Amino acid sequence: MPDNKYSNKSLEKEEKLWLLVGMGYTAEEALTAMDKCGPDTQIAELTDFIYAAELEKELDVCIRELPDEEDEKSYSHPRNLEFLSNKKRKLYKDEKQGSRGLWRSSKKQECGTERRIYIPNPMIGFCDPDESWPIVERKLPEAAKRLPYFYYENVALTPQGVWSKISRFLYDIEPEFVDSVYFCACARKRGYIHNLPIHNRFPLTPRPPRTIQEAIPWTKKWWPSWDGRTTLDCIHTKSGSAKLAERIRQALEEYDGEPEPPRHVQTYVLAECRKWNLVWVGRNKVAPIEPNEMEMLMGFPRNHTRGGGVCNGDRYTALGNSFQVDTVAYHLSVLKEQFPNGINVLSLFSGIGGAEVALHRLGIPLKNVVSVEISEVNRNIVRGWWKETNQCGNLIEIADVQEVTWDKLEQYVSSFGGFDLLIGGSPCNNLSGRNRVSRVGLEGEHSSLFYEYFRILDLVKCIMG
Ligand code: SAH
Question: Which residue among 310, 316, 321 has the greatest number of ligand 1 atoms within 8 angstroms of its CB, and so is best to mutate?
Answer without folding.
Answer: 321
